[in-house]
Design goal:
Strand content of chain B: under 5%
Helix content of chain A: over 70%
Number of helices of chain A: 11
Distance between the termini of chain A: 68 Å
Number of strands of chain A: 2
Strand content of chain A: under 5%
Structural class of chain B: mainly alpha
Order of helices and strands of chain A: HHHHHHHEHHHHE
Shape of chain B: elongated
Number of strands of chain B: 0
CATH topology of chain B: Helix Hairpins
Number of helices of chain B: 3
Largest sheet of chain A: 2 strands, antiparallel
Largest sheet of chain B: none
Number of domains of chain B: 1
Helix content of chain B: 55-70%
CATH architecture of chain B: Orthogonal Bundle
Shape of chain A: globular
Radius of gyration of chain A: 22 Å
Order of helices and strands of chain B: HHH
Distance between the termini of chain B: 39 Å
Oligomer: heterodimer
Largest interface: A-B, 93 and 85 residues
């Protein structure tokens, strides 16, 4: 029993305790706070599983931006919690039994590993050098399974369209109803003045280093979004009006450039999303740069929510 | 029992916990939270499968790892959409419940059907 194993065991106990708290906590607000802590613990688990790229994504998106949206919702819905009637005992027992059976079946699968381990790692590494990328996960995302990545970016745009569509008709194209801090001299104001220069550099670095090291467009874009959200929440800058043309251009710019590169692949390399030899890395970097910007804007707008005010003409 | 197995057993527990919360908690916000918990349990199973596939000098099979990254992003997009729907429901009706307009909540247990 090594120090690392003891550390991992403590980590698992903490993770499961926080997970139980998410489910059983009485107040939704404390459950959401637990969810944010849970996401950060889970990021440490991903590091322990040698998946640094996933750890960064989980900490930034799974815990960070999701947590922020959930916190906003929990504070708005707080007054509805008093009327909640919890489920009856027979239902709870039946659900507990069902879930225990499912968990046990999955655990049995984990405990009986296959005789031959199936892995695509050697195949991934065999041709990775042709793309010029050094990070195998980035290679899978932008070379081998680029179609998945393209659709994933489109899903984010679709989610934003969906969220905006939920605005009442009179607010369509208006200003998102993000709740803003009312204290101009708080620590939040100071932080939102000090952090963005560092955060913007760090976000761009994360996208840039993602080709060869853990990181990438999504993680970098999330850092950019976090900086923008910080500035908006501190009240230093208002959320933009959602009918502003350039804002909409920025949101679709990344997926559009990625799609254009993919379509160009038909002519230049003979297949959709194929890269001509020797140009793979520059094209991927161009697509990633545009995606970083688009993701930053789209995540910031998703966090700001649907329009709730009429834009001044 | 090694560390990978330990994390591997975490996955099923989280799936079970998330499913339990999804079924038993009547509040939509808590259901969204529970569903996210269920999702992370599934991702963790992927992570353990990826770790077992460590080869060619890598700490894990990059293909399931990339799938998990895509999964986290899609889960986020779905969560953002679900939260927006829930807040709109609250704006329209003044309540955030899945059963239609029963203020006494007598039908709360049936909303899992």
């Amino acid at each position: 029993m090594t120090i690392t194993f003891i550390f991992d065991a403590i980590l698992v106990v903490l993770l499961l305790t926080v997970a139980i708290w998410i489910i059983v906590a009485r107040a939704a607000f404390s459950a959401v706070l637990a969810f944010v802590a849970y996401g950060l613990l889970l990021a440490v688990v991903w590091v322990e599983l040698s998946a640094i790229d996933i750890a960064l994504t989980e900490a930034a998106i799974g815990s960070g931006v999701t947590g922020m949206i959930l916190l906003g919702a929990a504070s708005r819905l707080r007054e509805t919690e008093a009327a909640v009637v919890s489920a009856g005992r027979p239902l709870i027992l039946a659900a507990a039994l069902l879930c225990a059976v499912i968990a046990a079946a999955l655990a049995a699968l984990v405990l009986s590993p296959p005789s031959t381990v199936f892995t695509l790692a050697p195949e991934t590494m065999a041709h990775l050098h042709e793309s010029g990328l050094g990070n195998p996960v980035a290679g899978v995302l932008f070379v081998y399974r680029a179609f998945d990545t393209l659709l994933e970016k489109v899903v984010v745009v679709l989610a934003l369209v969906g969220v905006w569509s939920l605005a009442p008709d009179r607010f369509w194209g208006g200003i998102p109803g993000l709740q803003v801090s009312q204290q101009p001299n708080s620590v939040l104001t100071l932080l939102s003045q000090l952090l963005p220069p560092l955060g913007i550099v760090f976000g761009i670095y994360m996208f840039w280093t993602g080709a060869n090291n853990p990181g990438g467009a999504f993680q970098g874009g999330t850092v950019l979004a976090a900086m923008w959200i910080l500035v908006m929440i501190a009240g230093l800058q208002n959320p933009p009006s959602t009918n502003w043309r350039w804002l909409r251009v920025l949101v679709v710019l990344g997926p559009a450039i990625f799609l254009a590169i993919g379509l160009a692949g038909f002519g230049l390399a003979g297949a959709f999303l194929a890269y001509p030899p020797g140009y793979a890395k520059p094209l991927i970097i161009v697509a990633e740069a545009a995606l970083t910007l688009s993701i930053g804007v789209a995540l910031g707008l998703l966090a700001a929510g649907p329009p709730e005010r009429v834009a001044q003409q | 029992m090694n560390a990978v197995m330990l994390f591997g057993l975490c996955g099923p527990v989280l799936v079970g916990l998330g499913l339990f919360g999804l079924i038993t908690n009547p509040q939509p916000l808590r259901k969204i939270l529970a569903f996210n918990l269920l999702g992370t349990g599934t991702f963790l199973l992927f992570g353990v499968i990826a770790r077992r596939g460590a080869a060619a000098g890598l700490g894990g099979d990059p293909v399931p790892q990339a799938l998990v990254i895509t999964g986290i992003v899609v889960a986020f997009a779905a969560t953002a959409m679900a939260i927006a729907l829930l807040l709109r429901l609250f704006q329209e009706t003044g309540q955030a419940a899945l059963d239609s307009g029963d203020p006494n909540g007598t039908s709360a247990p049936t909303d899992v059907s």
